[in-house]
Amino acid sequence: MTLTTRQPTPSRRREPRTPGRLVKRAALYATLSVAAFLVLLPVIWMILTSFKPEGTITSHPSQLFPTQWTFQNYRDVLDAIPFARQFGNTLVFAGTVTAFSLLFDSMTAYALARLEFPGKRVLFAAVLLFLMLPIQITLIPVYQLVANLDLVNTFPGLIIPRATNAFGIFFLRQFFLGIPRDLSEAARIDGAGEFRIYWTIVMPLARPALLTLGLFHFMFNWNDLLWPLIISTSSDMQTLPAGLALFTGEHVVQYGLLMAGATMAMLPMLLAFVVVQRKFIQGIATTGLK
Known about the structure:
MetI-like; Carbohydrate ABC transporter membrane protein 2, CUT1 family; mainly alpha; membrane; MetI-like fold; 2 domains; 290 residues
């Protein structure tokens, strides 16, 4: 009888904390702290400005912290525009577009990544071409199409043109290419069809990428001003960015109301990022790896 002994795994040797390494680490943390402060400074300024009286916002010399705290700007925002209605419109618009985009983008990406059919390369090249086109180029043709269908100032007219996105197709295709084909082949041997493979195997494995793309879609459409402003002709159909744009006039900008409204509009985005931040980072890190 032969006895086998398990060799002990050598412990990972910790690098010595030399003064040079400590200085480099301290410099790195200091640089990151400064960069984080510079990124957060506009947000901090926006929140603090929302609590300042309107007359003190543009006073000279300017101050970061308010000398007198007030909630009047928040009350004025709720009185000036139908904030609750526009908040709901924005939630319906961004949420529905995100759901449709994840469905249609993932289907198209699956076909481009896992299936073979004539014209596949041409179709992918067209997706890349649309990815490089500025969205402003397609605004007039899309608006004319929506107007011809009598969908102006309606939720279908607002949502349907955004139901898919070239970036989402490209993003998910790159992720699907990294999923082992052995899983799909095993499912085909067991008699699974393409839709079942897509829905029960590929989609669960792509959850980090789907959450990442969903956050991108939701943020973009939540903050979008141009398309809702063009397609909505009444205040009851406008989204929050379009409603807040009313506080910016040709000669006068109501900074207090604008900052208060922007602060309230930012909260859902902050909550969404906190919920999916771990999967968001994982999806960014793994997309494109094969």
